[in-house]
Every structure is written in structure tokens, then in C-alpha cells.
Amino acid sequence: MKKFIALLLLCVxxxxxxxxxxxxxxxxxxxxxxSEDRLSEELRTVIEERKASPFKVTYNDKEYLYICIxxxxxxxxxxxxxxxxxxxxEDAIHVSTDLLGPGPEDKTGNAPSYPYIVIKTQFxxxxxxxx
Length: 131
Prior knowledge:
Number of domains: 1
Helix content: 10-25%
Strand order of the largest sheet: 1-5-6-8
Distance between the termini: 44 Å
Number of helices: 2
């Protein structure tokens, strides 16, 4: 019985090294945050239709990939979004962003806002994973 358990344990340890490296970061990607006035009319329309709810959309023009992330309706203005990471793995592009609320001294008004970010990077035919 002890030999069986030892053999089973050895197999588990040996097989644990056989995982996939598909989520290993290959490199960070260069990107630009695109302002609303530089968006194509088509992309601007898609964002306008979806902005009231959180959304994640990708769009490409065969030269660039646009990764759009919206956080839905917020009760006030003064929000900003930061890009945590944008990197390439063997089979995907990974992106992470954070919504930052207004500071205690910011004058935000009472009107709702719809914060979103559009990230432009070189086009690659890869799946985008929103982390």
C-alpha cells in the first residue's frame, strides 16, 4: 500500500510540470489611450449604445486593435481609468484596467458620468482576455 501511495504521489508531482505555458507573459505591448474625438464614427456609436452598462468590446481596422472598456453609469463625474497591464501571451492579449473614483476634494457635480477607456495597440489576430 505504501508503494502504491508513493508511486501515485510521484506521478502527481511528475505530471504537475506538464502544464501549458499559454498564460506566460511574452512581452508588454505598446499602447495609446485614444480620446473620444479621435474615434471612428462606428466605434463611437458602439460605445454610445453600450455606455450605460459595463462593457468590454474590441474593434480592429486591420492595422490597429482597439480595446474598449466601460464601467457603466456612475452617480457623479470625476472618475478616471488607468491601464494596469497590456501584454502578450502565446495565445492571447491580456488587459487589465482600474476605475479610480473622484478624490474627496474634487468637484464632481450631480450629473451621472459614463467612464470608459479606448486602448489602441498594433493589430494581432489574438483573443483578448480582460483580467
